[in-house]
DNA sequence: CATGAATGAGGTTTCATTCAT
DNA sequence: GATGAATGAAACCTCATTCAT
């Protein structure tokens, strides 16, 4: 975010928000706990973020921004469409696996109604990035063009979300990234153009 | 469910719960509003459901039970695996489209942490039903057996959830069921055994 | 007040309000302290009185009502105007001396601006009572009729207030009622008709 | 006072304090508003006056000092006791009428408890001045000597305060000073020695 | 068993006041 | 010395939840 304030406080708040909101449902998480854990005055939080939701959304925005940056970074130098998508898929699983708190917040505690109304939700940059790639694939006849590019994206995102959620629910030990390739091949078959004669492997 | 009380009240409560919880985030929905709309004292709700979450979960359980019944009903007489899965996919979209309030609650307002800890979440009957079918498909060599049956289920469920959510977010007019077949073909390609020589259509 | 609730709680609250607000300036008195001392939940106070000011004003109203009743009671059977006024003067001093907390609140801590806008302030019953007596005196030629009856009342009230306040400030041990007659004679000379030939004693 | 700073700022602050504190109850008046209106940082106020109360008391002290000076000035050349008191009475009404903000603050918003503990409250100079005159009158047999001189002062002060307050409450248009003589005659009768054979006029 | 009063927790606001620059 | 960020306290407000009837 653009909250131009004490970077130290910002850091402590970030950790506290991650901790508190990833461990309880939104309505059970207390802003007073966040303040206490962060060692910040309760008022300071309000001065900066205005509300419980504002606080959470501000950090979610930051985190998603970082994920976007990471994806962009990793896409560098990859030409092949399939490899691009594989990378995108992998980076997401990898990111959420390394920051499960973020995954929990994103997929499990964020109050949806509010988030949807928030600018953050759109994550235009990331979405735009994805859609661009997917559209190119459709035009090139590689990806299924019977549906909108948005639908292809929904398939990937839905699966990422579900996979992460079940990973948490089932308390799986096995690494997400370890399964990434296996899972991606399935995704790829869903997305790729069924009429395409090009071989899958 | 087990709330042995006046079916009339039960009906009014059901409608009220659907209305209130589908329109706001969980923490913004007020049990007093539910009571008022249902024309019941909030204390009565407490006596029966114990808590706000208990109330919501009880009805979610009922609704999911009905969905399960509906799926079972619709599967009758279908032999072909693909058709079975297509049906399962379609019934879900159809159900959520007709009861968007339920979809909203299920995918957007339920406090996840609590739900996950609740028996309801497991939806053993429905899940068991699905897994059984999927496992048969894997054994028959029709479905991809490189991954657990649960993973196959994740594809379906994740896509249903995402599709519904984006349908709400984008305020799409177009019917969900109308797109069902097109979407299902993607799912099917993801699930089916890539080595299978059997034709797709 | 008409707060139809638990008389026990009401009693405890009354004592607590008297204690807390008579010992600090209004802005230093905490509603939480009142709640704690009264052994009542903080929320309960808000449910009933709406605000810190509402709480105080409600009790002030009650107390002044009792003072009024007491005055009315004491006036019974007195015919002579001077004796009536002497009584009115004495009852007030006596009342505030016995409930110095009330005097402190009334004359020293009540936020004036708010009080003045409040129905309480007008104390219509008591004021009406006084004015009636004073007007009769003016018409009978006993009291000075060069000024409005309200001005005559100002002499009495102003002197009562100031006398009480200085009694507190000077931490005088001497009883207020003991001085009442001496003081009243001053008031009487101020109010009585200077042209009147009637003897003072 | 002792605030050795920029006379311009001092002037702006004085006006701001008068405006803000005369229009709301003390607890509703905000020091930030004062700062804003005066065009000063609120911290600067703190550096100089230490607290909200300190700020108000400092100015009240200044204002009362000016009133005292004015009274002293006006008493010059008056020998007759009655005329002296008449003057004192008149100057006060005149001053508060011209600076109603001061009257409001003094009689209606100042937190009493704090003020009473403050050196300012004693207003030793003014009080001493009055008491001296009153005592002389008592010794000369002109004023009632059945009560302490302080009591005589209480009578005057109480009436001034009450008169001003009711003038505000009743939103009277009529000038205070215009009624001053009529009112003073009543005061004089209250104060003067009842045994004195000297004529009243 | 249904009800509403009372409670306690915590979100939201506003401030006086303190602290570090 | 002047400033604004940060703090702490407390008013205010809404609720979920408990309790006594």
From TrEMBL, chains A, B, C, D:
- In the record, what terms sit under GO molecular function? DNA binding
Outline the extent of the HTH tetR-type domain: 7-67
Key words, A-Z: DNA-binding
Per the UniProt entry, the signal peptide is none
The residue stretches assigned to a coiled coil in this entry are none
- Asked if DNA-binding is a keyword of the record, the answer is yes
Output the superkingdom of the source species. Bacteria
What Pfam families has UniProt attached to this entry?
Answer: TetR_N
The residues that make up the annotated DNA-binding region are 30-49
Record-given protein name: TetR/AcrR family transcriptional regulator
